[in-house]
Amino acid sequence: MEIVEVGPRDGLQNEKRVLSTETKIEYVNRALAAGLRRLEVAAFARPDRVPQMADAEDVLRGVPRPVGVRYIALVLNGRGLDRILALDPAARPHEINYVVVATDEFARRNQGMDTMTSLEGFREVAAKANNNGLGVTLTVAAAFGCPFTGEVKADRVRAIIADAGPLDELCLADTIGVGVPAQVIDLAAAAREAAPGVPLRAHFHNTRNTGYANAITAATLGFVALDASLGGIGGCPFAPAATGNIATEDLAYLLNRSGLETGVAVTLAAETGTWIGAELVLPQVPAQLGRAGDFPALA
């Protein structure tokens, strides 16, 4: 079972403290040492709006490039993709992640346009990215609920996916941490109806302590990848008191012990989760493994 490490992007982007490029690269190196092989490491967004990601190009130039490792960058529009394509090919990410928000109100506040206008932009960017050898993931954000308009119906998500065009991968995101396993089941069915055969990925937050239940549900339904962040850092500025992404070390423990091997060494992952929390000057990271330890305990 693949875990996509999103801490270097979604985790750091939502923390107040801005880390140096060197610290971000060390974060990636530590994640690789823990066995993670697919990582979202940068966002090509406006530096004045997202100062945590202002050094996206430098991070991509500086991270190691071992065989079998794939890097992802978030883009929100064609300008972001143009910045990627301006990089030397050896410094580009292997994939892009493009976010379309499921509700018009959230989309307008987050991206300045309604959902279907954002989807038009996705189709253009996806075609250009594919033509330049980049993989493309469409993330449908707030697919499980919206902080401004409430419930999001599976039919709404189905309609968005059906209008998206060809997809390499589809990610269903519980951006504010309101989802429950029954919704995972419903949305998986909707996604497979709208985009048969497209690999499914999920992005869960643990705001209401349902993130891990949702994750194991997705795993049993055949999702090919799950997002998580080391330490469980991150969160969503639109979710009051949000506790962040589900934690990589806790998720890896859950999956490994359930017979779904992740390749992640949970002890090393937990050490990195504790380390990044200290770098961010957090009193404590949300992840549990750094405190409880692996089981059975290593000698």
From TrEMBL:
CDD domains reported in the protein's UniProt record: DRE_TIM_HMGL
Lineage, top ranks: Bacteria, Bacillati, Actinomycetota, Actinomycetes, Micromonosporales
GO molecular function: hydroxymethylglutaryl-CoA lyase activity; metal ion binding
Positions of the Pyruvate carboxyltransferase domain: 1-270
Alphabetized PANTHER family for the sequence: HYDROXYMETHYLGLUTARYL-COA LYASE
The family this protein is said to belong to: Belongs to the HMG-CoA lyase family.
InterPro entries reported for this sequence: Aldolase_TIM (IPR013785), HMGL (IPR043594), PYR_CT (IPR000891)
Official protein name in the record: Hydroxymethylglutaryl-CoA lyase
GO biological process: ketone body biosynthetic process; L-leucine catabolic process
